[in-house]
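Checklist before submission:
- one chain only
- standard amino acids only
- sequence pasted in full

Submission:
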Amino acid sequence: MLQQKIAKQLASFVSEAKLAIIAAPIIYWDDTVIKINCLRVYTDTLVALYVAHETKSKAGVDEDGILLALDEETVVVHDHNIINYNDDYVFQNAECCVHLLRDLQKVTDNLQHEWAGKLSKLLTTTNANRNDGIMTNANEIRNQVKELVKLGWHEQEQEHSKAYYVSEEAALLRRIEKYADNYLMWLYNEDIPFSNNENEAYVVLKRR
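Returned file contents:
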């Protein structure tokens, strides 16, 4: 097929693009399911590499050969993609807080539980302070998050077990408990962004 012939002729370019992306200080990657397959993009500010796969899977990510090439000093900021926590990878994971804010808003919209709104305010205010150069005690914020999760479980107990969105809220509370340190890495390292939403992708930040 014409596409396969052209793809073979681009092999050297693809190889050079991968090397450039792996070496870049900031890398973005994302994928989406389209009608015929999965389209994934890896990019920094200068290079963009699009890769097509039949499905979204770790096998496809590994075949791309980028995440596997990252070292222990690399921080990957993402929207809670469980694939990234696989033991085959050695990079550090940081969760996108803007996506967390969206999940918290769903709790507020559907259950009106106070913990979600309070956590949203805590995160947004702390990030705004950081952007304004106001120092924040990271451990204090971490403790406040822990207390708000406790409040969330208390509010869960007051709800009818069959109430709409209760199970989704419980799943979110468990996720925050397990990955709290990943959600709050930006508090401890000013180079790590609060969000990966500049291109709705995964941000990879190489710490210098």
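Reviewer check: The longest strand covers residues 26-33.
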